[in-house]
Amino acid sequence: MSQYVKGLRCRECGAESEIAAVHVCETCFGPLEVEYDYAAIKQVFTRELIESRPRNIWRYRELLPITGEPKIGLYSGYTPLVRADRLAAALGVDELYVKDDSVNHPTFSYKDRVVSVAISKAIELGFDTVSCASTGNLANSVSAHAARAGLNCYIFIPDNLEQGKVIGSTIYGPRAVAINGNYDDVNRLCTEIADKYGWAFVNINFRPYYTEGAKTYGFEIAEQLGWKLPQHVVVPTAGGTILPKVAKAFSELTDLGLVTGHAKIHSAQAAGCAPVITAMHKHTDLITPVKPNTIAKSIAIGNPADGYYVLKAVRESGGWGESVTDQEIVDGIKLLART
Ligand SMILES: *Cc1c(COP(=O)(O)O)cnc(C)c1O
Ligand SMILES: [Zn+2]
Question: Which atom belonging to ligand 1 lies closest to the Cα atom of 137?
Fold first, then answer.
Protein backbone atom coordinates (compact mmCIF):
# COMPACT_ATOMS: atom_id res chain seq x y z
CA MET A 1 0.00 0.00 0.00
CA SER A 2 2.90 2.30 0.78
CA GLN A 3 3.39 3.09 -2.88
CA TYR A 4 0.25 5.25 -2.85
CA VAL A 5 1.24 7.66 -0.05
CA LYS A 6 3.82 10.12 -1.29
CA GLY A 7 4.28 12.28 1.80
CA LEU A 8 2.88 15.40 3.41
CA ARG A 9 2.34 18.73 1.68
CA CYS A 10 1.52 22.15 3.14
CA ARG A 11 -1.96 23.33 2.12
CA GLU A 12 -0.74 26.94 2.05
CA CYS A 13 2.79 27.11 0.60
CA GLY A 14 3.04 23.63 -0.96
CA ALA A 15 6.25 22.69 0.89
CA GLU A 16 6.70 18.93 1.14
CA SER A 17 7.68 16.90 4.18
CA GLU A 18 8.04 13.26 5.07
CA ILE A 19 5.41 11.11 6.77
CA ALA A 20 5.81 11.65 10.54
CA ALA A 21 3.87 12.84 13.59
CA VAL A 22 3.72 16.46 12.40
CA HIS A 23 0.78 18.64 11.47
CA VAL A 24 2.12 22.09 10.64
CA CYS A 25 4.47 23.26 7.91
CA GLU A 26 8.00 24.12 9.07
CA THR A 27 8.14 27.04 6.65
CA CYS A 28 4.79 28.82 7.07
CA PHE A 29 2.92 26.98 9.88
CA GLY A 30 0.15 26.02 7.41
CA PRO A 31 -1.65 22.69 7.91
CA LEU A 32 -0.13 19.58 6.33
CA GLU A 33 -2.12 17.29 4.08
CA VAL A 34 -1.39 13.72 2.94
CA GLU A 35 -0.32 13.43 -0.73
CA TYR A 36 -1.16 10.39 -2.83
CA ASP A 37 0.06 9.02 -6.13
CA TYR A 38 -3.29 9.29 -7.93
CA ALA A 39 -1.91 8.00 -11.24
CA ALA A 40 -0.91 4.72 -9.57
CA ILE A 41 -4.21 4.54 -7.63
CA LYS A 42 -6.18 4.98 -10.87
CA GLN A 43 -4.61 1.76 -12.22
CA VAL A 44 -6.06 -0.41 -9.44
CA PHE A 45 -8.89 1.38 -7.65
CA THR A 46 -12.11 0.30 -9.36
CA ARG A 47 -15.74 0.07 -8.23
CA GLU A 48 -15.48 -3.72 -8.53
CA LEU A 49 -12.45 -3.88 -6.23
CA ILE A 50 -14.12 -1.65 -3.64
CA GLU A 51 -17.40 -3.57 -3.76
CA SER A 52 -15.58 -6.90 -3.32
CA ARG A 53 -14.17 -5.84 0.06
CA PRO A 54 -15.61 -6.02 3.61
CA ARG A 55 -18.03 -3.25 4.54
CA ASN A 56 -15.76 -1.06 6.61
CA ILE A 57 -13.71 2.11 6.10
CA TRP A 58 -10.76 0.15 4.70
CA ARG A 59 -12.58 -0.75 1.48
CA TYR A 60 -11.22 2.65 0.32
CA ARG A 61 -7.73 1.93 1.66
CA GLU A 62 -5.81 3.16 -1.39
CA LEU A 63 -7.12 6.65 -0.55
CA LEU A 64 -6.26 6.36 3.16
CA PRO A 65 -2.81 7.21 4.56
CA ILE A 66 -1.64 3.87 5.93
CA THR A 67 1.10 1.46 4.90
CA GLY A 68 0.39 -2.25 4.88
CA GLU A 69 -2.56 -3.86 6.62
CA PRO A 70 -4.96 -1.77 8.76
CA LYS A 71 -4.40 -2.38 12.48
CA ILE A 72 -7.77 -1.32 13.76
CA GLY A 73 -11.20 -0.10 12.63
CA LEU A 74 -12.15 -3.39 11.00
CA TYR A 75 -15.81 -2.78 11.95
CA SER A 76 -15.92 1.02 11.60
CA GLY A 77 -17.77 2.77 8.80
CA TYR A 78 -20.22 1.64 6.15
CA THR A 79 -23.11 2.95 8.23
CA PRO A 80 -26.62 3.04 6.72
CA LEU A 81 -27.66 5.81 4.34
CA VAL A 82 -31.30 5.83 5.36
CA ARG A 83 -33.84 6.97 2.79
CA ALA A 84 -36.25 9.17 4.76
CA ASP A 85 -39.36 9.59 2.61
CA ARG A 86 -41.70 10.89 5.30
CA LEU A 87 -39.13 13.43 6.46
CA ALA A 88 -38.63 14.45 2.82
CA ALA A 89 -42.39 14.99 2.43
CA ALA A 90 -42.54 17.03 5.63
CA LEU A 91 -39.72 19.24 4.34
CA GLY A 92 -41.05 19.46 0.79
CA VAL A 93 -38.17 17.75 -1.04
CA ASP A 94 -38.28 14.77 -3.41
CA GLU A 95 -35.53 12.58 -2.10
CA LEU A 96 -33.74 12.76 1.24
CA TYR A 97 -31.23 10.53 2.99
CA VAL A 98 -29.78 10.53 6.49
CA LYS A 99 -26.28 9.13 6.97
CA ASP A 100 -26.66 7.40 10.31
CA ASP A 101 -23.28 7.40 12.02
CA SER A 102 -24.99 6.97 15.38
CA VAL A 103 -24.59 3.24 14.70
CA ASN A 104 -20.90 3.47 13.86
CA HIS A 105 -18.78 0.81 15.54
CA PRO A 106 -17.59 0.74 18.30
CA THR A 107 -18.59 4.05 19.97
CA PHE A 108 -21.59 5.33 17.98
CA SER A 109 -20.26 8.47 16.34
CA TYR A 110 -18.38 9.42 13.18
CA LYS A 111 -15.22 9.74 15.32
CA ASP A 112 -14.67 5.98 14.93
CA ARG A 113 -13.71 6.68 11.31
CA VAL A 114 -11.04 9.27 12.01
CA VAL A 115 -9.71 7.56 15.12
CA SER A 116 -9.32 4.20 13.32
CA VAL A 117 -7.10 5.85 10.74
CA ALA A 118 -5.11 7.95 13.23
CA ILE A 119 -4.42 5.04 15.58
CA SER A 120 -3.56 2.66 12.75
CA LYS A 121 -0.99 5.24 11.70
CA ALA A 122 0.24 5.73 15.28
CA ILE A 123 0.88 1.98 15.61
CA GLU A 124 2.63 1.98 12.24
CA LEU A 125 4.92 4.83 13.35
CA GLY A 126 5.76 3.02 16.59
CA PHE A 127 3.80 5.05 19.17
CA ASP A 128 2.67 3.28 22.36
CA THR A 129 0.50 6.09 23.79
CA VAL A 130 -2.48 7.78 22.19
CA SER A 131 -4.31 10.87 23.35
CA CYS A 132 -6.82 13.56 22.40
CA ALA A 133 -8.58 16.76 23.38
CA SER A 134 -12.30 16.12 23.19
CA THR A 135 -15.87 17.33 23.69
CA GLY A 136 -16.74 13.70 24.48
CA ASN A 137 -17.29 11.59 21.40
CA LEU A 138 -13.65 11.68 20.38
CA ALA A 139 -12.50 10.64 23.85
CA ASN A 140 -14.93 7.70 23.74
CA SER A 141 -13.54 6.54 20.43
CA VAL A 142 -9.86 7.01 21.31
CA SER A 143 -10.38 5.15 24.60
CA ALA A 144 -12.11 2.23 22.88
CA HIS A 145 -9.56 1.87 20.08
CA ALA A 146 -6.65 2.17 22.51
CA ALA A 147 -8.16 -0.62 24.60
CA ARG A 148 -8.56 -2.82 21.53
CA ALA A 149 -4.97 -2.17 20.41
CA GLY A 150 -3.49 -2.41 23.92
CA LEU A 151 -2.08 1.11 23.86
CA ASN A 152 -1.71 3.58 26.72
CA CYS A 153 -4.35 6.28 26.54
CA TYR A 154 -4.78 9.79 27.95
CA ILE A 155 -7.93 11.78 27.31
CA PHE A 156 -8.35 15.49 28.05
CA ILE A 157 -11.92 16.70 28.53
CA PRO A 158 -13.72 19.78 29.90
CA ASP A 159 -14.67 19.22 33.54
CA ASN A 160 -18.35 20.06 32.87
CA LEU A 161 -18.83 17.21 30.38
CA GLU A 162 -22.07 15.19 30.70
CA GLN A 163 -21.59 12.15 32.93
CA GLY A 164 -22.79 9.75 30.23
CA LYS A 165 -20.00 10.86 27.94
CA VAL A 166 -17.40 10.58 30.71
CA ILE A 167 -18.42 6.99 31.51
CA GLY A 168 -18.43 6.18 27.78
CA SER A 169 -14.68 6.82 27.88
CA THR A 170 -13.57 5.81 31.35
CA ILE A 171 -15.12 2.33 31.05
CA TYR A 172 -12.22 1.53 28.67
CA GLY A 173 -9.64 2.48 31.29
CA PRO A 174 -7.83 5.53 29.90
CA ARG A 175 -6.19 8.12 32.14
CA ALA A 176 -8.83 10.85 32.05
CA VAL A 177 -7.79 14.44 32.76
CA ALA A 178 -10.62 16.91 33.42
CA ILE A 179 -9.71 20.51 32.65
CA ASN A 180 -11.40 23.49 34.26
CA GLY A 181 -12.45 25.19 31.01
CA ASN A 182 -14.26 24.61 27.74
CA TYR A 183 -13.13 22.51 24.76
CA ASP A 184 -11.10 25.37 23.31
CA ASP A 185 -9.14 25.68 26.56
CA VAL A 186 -8.54 21.93 26.59
CA ASN A 187 -7.37 21.99 23.00
CA ARG A 188 -4.96 24.86 23.61
CA LEU A 189 -3.40 22.98 26.52
CA CYS A 190 -3.04 19.81 24.44
CA THR A 191 -1.41 21.67 21.58
CA GLU A 192 1.22 22.84 24.04
CA ILE A 193 1.93 19.38 25.44
CA ALA A 194 1.54 17.25 22.29
CA ASP A 195 5.22 17.31 21.34
CA LYS A 196 6.50 17.30 24.88
CA TYR A 197 5.54 13.74 25.82
CA GLY A 198 5.92 11.94 22.51
CA TRP A 199 2.28 10.85 22.46
CA ALA A 200 0.11 10.44 19.40
CA PHE A 201 -2.58 13.10 19.86
CA VAL A 202 -5.04 11.94 17.23
CA ASN A 203 -6.44 15.41 16.54
CA ILE A 204 -3.19 17.38 16.96
CA ASN A 205 0.11 15.86 15.81
CA PHE A 206 -1.75 13.08 13.97
CA ARG A 207 -4.26 15.49 12.49
CA PRO A 208 -3.19 14.98 8.83
CA TYR A 209 -3.97 11.23 9.11
CA TYR A 210 -6.99 11.65 11.37
CA THR A 211 -8.76 14.06 9.02
CA GLU A 212 -8.22 11.74 6.06
CA GLY A 213 -10.44 9.19 7.81
CA ALA A 214 -13.35 11.62 7.44
CA LYS A 215 -13.20 11.14 3.66
CA THR A 216 -14.81 7.72 4.16
CA TYR A 217 -18.05 9.58 4.92
CA GLY A 218 -18.02 11.00 1.40
CA PHE A 219 -16.86 7.75 -0.23
CA GLU A 220 -19.73 5.85 1.37
CA ILE A 221 -22.40 8.42 0.45
CA ALA A 222 -21.29 8.24 -3.19
CA GLU A 223 -21.14 4.44 -3.24
CA GLN A 224 -24.47 4.05 -1.41
CA LEU A 225 -26.15 6.33 -3.98
CA GLY A 226 -24.94 4.01 -6.74
CA TRP A 227 -21.72 5.96 -7.50
CA LYS A 228 -23.63 9.20 -8.02
CA LEU A 229 -22.98 12.34 -6.00
CA PRO A 230 -26.02 13.86 -4.27
CA GLN A 231 -27.19 17.29 -5.43
CA HIS A 232 -26.81 18.69 -1.93
CA VAL A 233 -25.12 17.56 1.27
CA VAL A 234 -25.64 19.18 4.67
CA VAL A 235 -22.72 18.61 7.04
CA PRO A 236 -22.43 19.73 10.67
CA THR A 237 -19.38 21.83 11.48
CA ALA A 238 -17.50 21.85 14.77
CA GLY A 239 -13.72 21.78 14.37
CA GLY A 240 -14.31 21.65 10.64
CA THR A 241 -12.81 18.24 9.92
CA ILE A 242 -15.67 16.51 8.15
CA LEU A 243 -16.92 19.06 5.66
CA PRO A 244 -13.71 19.77 3.70
CA LYS A 245 -12.92 16.06 3.70
CA VAL A 246 -16.33 15.16 2.26
CA ALA A 247 -15.52 17.69 -0.47
CA LYS A 248 -12.10 16.08 -0.96
CA ALA A 249 -13.62 12.60 -1.12
CA PHE A 250 -16.07 13.71 -3.82
CA SER A 251 -13.34 15.37 -5.87
CA GLU A 252 -11.02 12.35 -5.57
CA LEU A 253 -13.79 10.00 -6.76
CA THR A 254 -14.61 12.41 -9.59
CA ASP A 255 -10.97 12.68 -10.68
CA LEU A 256 -10.60 8.90 -10.59
CA GLY A 257 -13.64 8.59 -12.86
CA LEU A 258 -15.66 6.64 -10.28
CA VAL A 259 -18.64 8.99 -9.85
CA THR A 260 -20.85 11.37 -11.78
CA GLY A 261 -22.64 14.53 -10.64
CA HIS A 262 -21.81 17.61 -8.61
CA ALA A 263 -22.67 18.17 -4.97
CA LYS A 264 -23.28 21.53 -3.34
CA ILE A 265 -22.02 21.29 0.21
CA HIS A 266 -23.75 23.16 3.04
CA SER A 267 -22.56 23.71 6.60
CA ALA A 268 -24.79 23.62 9.69
CA GLN A 269 -23.86 25.03 13.11
CA ALA A 270 -25.69 25.68 16.37
CA ALA A 271 -26.59 29.36 16.76
CA GLY A 272 -24.92 29.27 20.17
CA CYS A 273 -21.62 28.38 18.50
CA ALA A 274 -21.56 29.50 14.89
CA PRO A 275 -18.21 31.17 14.12
CA VAL A 276 -18.01 29.64 10.63
CA ILE A 277 -21.59 30.51 9.61
CA THR A 278 -21.13 34.06 10.88
CA ALA A 279 -18.04 34.48 8.68
CA MET A 280 -19.88 32.94 5.73
CA HIS A 281 -22.81 35.32 6.06
CA LYS A 282 -20.41 38.28 6.29
CA HIS A 283 -18.58 37.07 3.17
CA THR A 284 -15.26 37.15 4.98
CA ASP A 285 -12.45 34.60 5.48
CA LEU A 286 -11.88 35.88 8.97
CA ILE A 287 -13.33 33.58 11.62
CA THR A 288 -13.86 35.24 14.99
CA PRO A 289 -13.76 32.67 17.83
CA VAL A 290 -16.83 32.54 20.08
CA LYS A 291 -17.63 31.19 23.54
CA PRO A 292 -20.00 28.25 22.93
CA ASN A 293 -23.45 28.28 24.52
CA THR A 294 -25.61 25.49 23.10
CA ILE A 295 -27.14 22.14 24.01
CA ALA A 296 -25.35 20.64 20.98
CA LYS A 297 -22.23 19.88 23.01
CA SER A 298 -20.64 17.58 20.40
CA ILE A 299 -20.32 20.50 17.99
CA ALA A 300 -19.56 23.22 20.53
CA ILE A 301 -16.13 24.27 19.27
CA GLY A 302 -15.73 28.05 19.37
CA ASN A 303 -12.34 28.21 17.66
CA PRO A 304 -12.47 25.68 14.80
CA ALA A 305 -9.07 24.44 13.60
CA ASP A 306 -10.26 23.97 10.02
CA GLY A 307 -12.96 26.64 9.85
CA TYR A 308 -11.23 28.46 7.01
CA TYR A 309 -11.23 25.28 4.93
CA VAL A 310 -14.93 24.77 5.60
CA LEU A 311 -15.62 28.23 4.14
CA LYS A 312 -13.42 27.46 1.15
CA ALA A 313 -15.02 24.07 0.42
CA VAL A 314 -18.57 25.41 0.78
CA ARG A 315 -17.88 28.34 -1.55
CA GLU A 316 -16.08 26.22 -4.16
CA SER A 317 -19.02 23.79 -4.27
CA GLY A 318 -21.62 26.56 -4.60
CA GLY A 319 -23.13 25.69 -1.22
CA TRP A 320 -24.19 27.77 1.78
CA GLY A 321 -24.64 27.47 5.54
CA GLU A 322 -27.09 28.25 8.31
CA SER A 323 -27.19 28.13 12.09
CA VAL A 324 -30.10 26.93 14.20
CA THR A 325 -31.23 27.80 17.72
CA ASP A 326 -31.38 25.20 20.48
CA GLN A 327 -35.19 25.22 20.14
CA GLU A 328 -34.89 24.49 16.42
CA ILE A 329 -32.46 21.66 17.20
CA VAL A 330 -34.97 20.10 19.61
CA ASP A 331 -37.78 20.54 17.05
CA GLY A 332 -35.54 18.94 14.40
CA ILE A 333 -34.78 15.93 16.61
CA LYS A 334 -38.51 15.47 17.24
CA LEU A 335 -39.37 15.81 13.55
CA LEU A 336 -36.70 13.28 12.61
CA ALA A 337 -38.00 10.83 15.20
CA ARG A 338 -41.68 11.27 14.26
CA THR A 339 -41.11 10.82 10.53
C1 LIG B 1 -17.14 15.67 16.05
C2 LIG B 1 -18.54 15.71 15.69
C3 LIG B 1 -19.03 16.61 14.73
C4 LIG B 1 -18.21 17.69 14.07
O5 LIG B 1 -17.11 17.33 13.41
P6 LIG B 1 -15.92 18.29 12.97
O7 LIG B 1 -15.23 17.42 12.04
O8 LIG B 1 -15.13 18.63 14.20
O9 LIG B 1 -16.47 19.53 12.32
C10 LIG B 1 -20.37 16.55 14.41
N11 LIG B 1 -21.19 15.65 15.00
C12 LIG B 1 -20.76 14.79 15.93
C13 LIG B 1 -21.75 13.86 16.56
C14 LIG B 1 -19.43 14.78 16.31
O15 LIG B 1 -19.01 13.91 17.24
ZN1 LIG C 1 3.74 25.95 4.33
Answer: 15
